Structures are given as C-alpha cells and as structure tokens.
C-alpha cells in the first residue's frame, strides 16, 4: 500500500480529499467541520487515553476549541467524554460504536475516491496525447 501512496501526487491527494469531503456532505449522516473531523480522527487513529488537554496540545488548538468539537461529536454519538476514575479532575475521550462505524464508512469513501483518482490518472495520458491533434491547430481553444 505504501508503494501505491508514493505514486499519488499532491494534486491527486487533494482530489481524493475533495471527493471524500463531497461524499460526506452528500450522504445522510453527520456533517463535521475540519476541526471536528481532526479531533475525531485523532481519537480514533492514535492510541489513547485521550484528554481534552492532550488533544489540544496534539492539535495545537485551545482547550475550548476541543471542548466545542467534542460537544458536537458527543451530540452525534461519535465520541463521548467520561470522568477519569483515576483523576476526577480529568476527562477522558472515548470512542463509540457509531464512531467506529463512521470511521469504517470514511475509509470506504476514501478508498473509492482513491480508485477513481487512479482510474482518471490512467485515462489522462491518452487524453493529453489526443488533445493537440484534436484541436488541429484550428484555434478551438478559448481564452479566459
């Protein structure tokens, strides 16, 4: 898989991100901001336990910003907060079943976007080669 990733250029990565975000917006499900998605992915893709303070430090944002993101994630049941039984002053952020399902869906959406990007990249060289000949020097290109 790492070899595949090395073959994708930055424009293709941005295209995968765009296709993923558009698919998330279009689907019947939670619509997360970039910050909420960043917090969600940090909780689900990095080892815990996660605290508000730790998330704020890792993402380099304020604790109130993390709290607002967690409020939304909690409303959507994508994450939950629980008082740390070892230190009652600290709040732990936990994963949920619904959040795990959302991550699984997100992975599939991104995989589909990546396949579409690769298929387009394979098709583009043929289009680039035929485009100049198709124009035939007839001046069919339009300016701005």
Automatic annotation (TrEMBL):
SUPFAM superfamilies: Winged helix' DNA-binding domain
PROSITE patterns the record matches: HTH_MARR_2
Listed InterPro entries: HTH_MarR-typ, MarR/SlyA-like, WH-like_DNA-bd_sf, WH_DNA-bd_sf
One Pfam family cited in the UniProt record for this chain: MarR_2
Domain of life: Bacteria
A biological process term (GO) from this entry: response to stress
GO MF annotation terms: DNA-binding transcription factor activity
Every HTH marR-type domain range: 1-144
Listed name of the protein: MarR family transcriptional regulator
């Amino acid at each position: 898989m790492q070899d595949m990733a090395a073959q994708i250029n930055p424009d293709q990565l941005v295209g995968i991100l765009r296709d993923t975000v558009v698919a998330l917006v279009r689907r019947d499900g939670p619509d997360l901001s970039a910050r909420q998605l960043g917090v969600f992915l940090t909780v689900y893709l990095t080892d815990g336990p996660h605290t508000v303070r730790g998330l704020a430090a890792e993402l380099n944002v304020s604790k109130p910003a993390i709290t607002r993101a967690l409020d939304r994630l909690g409303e959507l049941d994508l994450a939950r907060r629980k008082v740390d039984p070892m230190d009652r002053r600290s709040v732990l952020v936990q994963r949920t079943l619904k959040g795990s399902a959302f991550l699984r869906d997100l992975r599939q959406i991104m995989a589909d976007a990546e396949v579409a990007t690769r298929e387009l990249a394979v098709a583009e060289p043929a289009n680039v080669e035929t485009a100049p000949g198709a124009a035939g020097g007839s001046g069919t290109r339009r300016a701005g």
